[in-house]
Write a structure and sequence with these properties.
single chain, 168 residues, mainly alpha, Arp2/3 complex 21 kDa subunit ARPC3, 7 helices
Amino acid sequence: MSLVLAAVGAAVAALIQSSILPFTAAGGAGLDLVLVLAVVWTMTVGLDGGLVWAFLGGLIIDVLLMRPLGLTAFVLLLAVGAAWLVGRVSPRAFYPVVVATAAVTAGLASILTVVLFGVLRGLPAGVEPVSQAVPTALLAGLVAAVIAPIPVIIRRRRFGDETERVDW
């Protein structure tokens, strides 16, 4: 059930990111909603769903925005892999770690997307990947701070917090 929810959520988030969010970008900061949701899902629910978010959402974004097919999916899969590694080091889905990971991976993914797009098709004039990374990371961290408590609370209610109770 969670993979179906991840697939539907990735499709909806990719549609929102491709249709509404480009018109709300300010100061060069573009929100990568699919990346934020994939990282939060990976660190709070599990790797399987995060991979579905990243791959399906990335392919839909590539098709809708006419990018090279697989570019966004590749970058999102790298971000989900990095989030999974951070989640393995952190013993549980700790809220500040989830938010910081989403922000850092969004900034790095922004740089990597622009660099790979430049390699594949050439950069348009005036595009600087590093100057866009900081506002993108801050915006992603802000959105992750709003979104991350939802799956953390749901997971703790569903599976319980193992540090809360002692098994007699």
